[in-house]
Specification:
Number of helices: 6
Radius of gyration: 28 Å
CATH class of the domain at 1-111: Mainly Alpha
Largest sheet: none
Strand content: under 5%
Order of helices and strands: HHHHHH
Number of strands: 0
Structural class: mainly alpha
């Protein structure tokens, strides 16, 4: 998954890379909007929590000074701030889930050294190690050579 800072700081480059990859449906714009909303919510929640902390101290001071009417009014206001924080926390959870989903749908950026191509036939070999083995029969993929339970058993044993 790409770092949100990369998308936030270089949206045009990310969009260009998505076009290069043929991933025009990558939700880069949605990610930017959700990230902005997430940051707005976080800033608002932080400000409300700071206000609640100051207000809660003030309620205690008012009660100690015998100004119960003012203290109760401020306590009710602090309660409404708590309700707003709760509502914003719920919205934040939804925004973060949507943001995470959208981020997962954006492919990694291609390296500048990688040539553009339609499929694996357009790949270039940059280096090899040893020589390719020649078989007297067509090579088979691993899922045909070993039943799935053997593969799972060997994976579990190596853990």
């Amino acid at each position: 998954m790409l770092d949100i800072k990369v998308i936030r700081d270089n949206p045009d480059q990310v969009m260009a890379a998505m076009q290069t990859l043929g991933a025009d449906d990558a939700p880069v714009g949605l990610v930017l909007r959700l990230d902005e909303r997430r940051r707005d919510i976080l800033a608002r929640v932080e400000a409300l929590r700071a206000e609640r902390n100051v207000g809660s101290k003030r309620v205690g001071e008012l009660m100690r000074d015998g100004r119960r009417t003012e203290g109760e009014a401020l306590r009710q206001h602090m309660s409404s701030i708590g309700d707003e924080i709760h509502t914003l926390d719920e919205e934040l959870a939804q925004v973060e889930a949507a943001l995470n989903d959208a981020m997962l749908r954006i492919p990694n950026l291609p390296h500048a050294s990688v040539p553009l191509g339609q499929d694996e036939r357009d790949n270039i070999v940059t280096r090899t190690h040893g020589s390719l083995r020649q078989f007297a029969f067509p090579a088979a993929p691993h899922w045909i050579l070993a039943p799935p339970w053997i593969l799972l058993t060997s994976i579990a044993a190596s853990s």
